[in-house]
């Protein structure tokens, strides 16, 4: 007896197909008003915000490359060295929980400049610290005060640029990506000199002091008061769906950053030095992707662009993870970087749009989401790798991305 066989779509393909189908349909946009085509103008504060986000990203990115030198000087094991990253993530969580209240009490200018100054103070503790207690404390202070600064940047850019906030936030993240690529180069150049690796942190401290001296009189945008659901004090359910999506996306991104070099050196079989160097494909793709994304946001709304970059990120990672030919792995890693590049800035712009006049609170909660993801995800994937092997454990990244796609679909349907 013959039976008809149904066509079977694997879960990955089915979700990607669903995302693409949603993009073709006329569905309710993420924000009530359509994105306007008003000219995007960068004033003095916009450039200041870009520079300060680059400053934050530079010091945050410097913590990882400096660990081998700290371990050698202080005699740290891997657990104590890893606590520096955990301390910074813990500081981000604390600042995410308290950021809105601190901004309301002290005002945006104090939090903006004080956050930058506090991050510089934490960097100084890393420079002079002669024990892990001091250096871990410095990393914690960098996480707390750096995140207070970080909270202010998307909130003020959103209030200043309105419907063009996605362009502003994406451009700011281009600056952040470029700054994040500098610490390994600077540390490598200075490590063998009399200045030592500490010069990389001194560079950040001096940059903050010079910016304060030259730009302290630039006014920060005041919070924009609007009549919205968010004005009642309760953020809508759609915001929390986007918040959950950001947790999943940041968790996936940092897991790729933390373990992709080991994946290429292990299951793929490349030399460790070559595997680490090939991570440039991911970080370079993020710079390129954010530059392209900043241009696309002027022509496409977030509702259309976000699913596209998510599908690209998922597809690229699947090629990177499943291929066993180094050239294909690198191509997949590059494609994954192109997609991942714009997921956070676009999601951040969406979240602040939904939050209405509570941009400070929304930014703080998003920092909390990022801190939780950074604290938990790479360590969880590492523990899974010890149990089932890194090749299988990397599949958790695909699960995180697919789950983010499901949450995004739910958020788009939420009214």
Explain the overall architecture:
This protein is mostly helical and 415 residues long. It starts with 10 loop residues before the first helix and ends with a helix. It is built from 17 helices and no strands. The protein has a single domain (18-26, 43-413), classed as Up-down Bundle (Growth Hormone, Chain: A).
Total count of helical runs of at least 4 residues:
17
Uncertain regions spanning at least 5 consecutive residues: 1-15, 25-36, 227-232
Number of strands: 0
Report the top-level CATH class.
Answer: Mainly Alpha
CATH architecture: Up-down Bundle
Write the CATH homologous superfamily. MFS general substrate transporter like domains
Distance between the termini: 49 Å
Structural shape? globular
Biggest β-sheet strands, sense, barrel:
none
Task: Assign the CATH topology.
Answer: Growth Hormone, Chain: A
Radius of gyration, taken over Cα atoms and rounded to an integer in Å: 21 Å
Could you state the order of secondary-structure elements as H and E? Answer: HHHHHHHHHHHHHHHHH
As a percent range, the share of strand residues is under 5%
Fraction in helix = over 70%
Mean pLDDT, to the nearest integer, reads: 85
Give the key terms.
single chain, 415 residues, mainly alpha, Growth Hormone, Chain: A, 77% helix
Task: Itemize the secondary structure elements and their pairings.
Blueprint: H1 11-24, H2 44-62, H3 67-74, H4 78-106, H5 108-128, H6 132-161, H7 165-180, H8 182-190, H9 198-215, H10 237-265, H11 272-277, H12 280-296, H13 302-322, H14 326-354, H15 359-388, H16 390-393, H17 395-413
Helix pairs in contact: 1-13, 1-17, 2-6, 2-7, 2-8, 2-9, 4-5, 4-6, 4-15, 5-6, 5-9, 6-7, 6-15, 7-12, 7-14, 10-14, 10-15, 10-17, 12-14, 13-14, 13-17, 14-15
